[in-house]
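Bumping with the actual sequence this time:
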Amino acid sequence: MAGKIDAKLAELNIELPKAAVPVANYVPVVIAGNTAYVSGQVTVLNGEFKFQGKVGQDFSADQAQQAARLCGLNIIAQLKLALGDLDRVKRVCKLGVFVNCVDGFTEQPKVANGVSDLMVEVFGDAGKHARSAVGVNVLPLNVAVEVDAIVEIA
């Protein structure tokens, strides 16, 4: 039987991507007590990298919002794999959003809204979170956005 969050995903017509395997010496999710720490998730969709390049050069802020949303879908996919049941998510506490952008680009908060909006769509009030939105000069595999998460779980 599908849980409340799985039903919400279906209602929103959201299909989670396959959770990506680590590309280096780390684990996707660490659970410590009632907290899940999700490693940075990038713009990969079922094994294929999307949104490779710089925001402000190769992608607009609006396009980068979609990249951030994809990172968020990957975070949710990792949580589902690690927890088994997304109803165990009590609160999305903090998101760290890293934007691979050109010098002078200042719309990181707008880009980050792509993942922030997704978390509220999926988890409701429990998806409202603190966050950082930071511009960087490069990200692994030249992806446009990377997002990590800290989540309270039951």
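The tokens above came from a reply further down the thread. Residues 52 and 142 are 5 Å apart (CA to CA).
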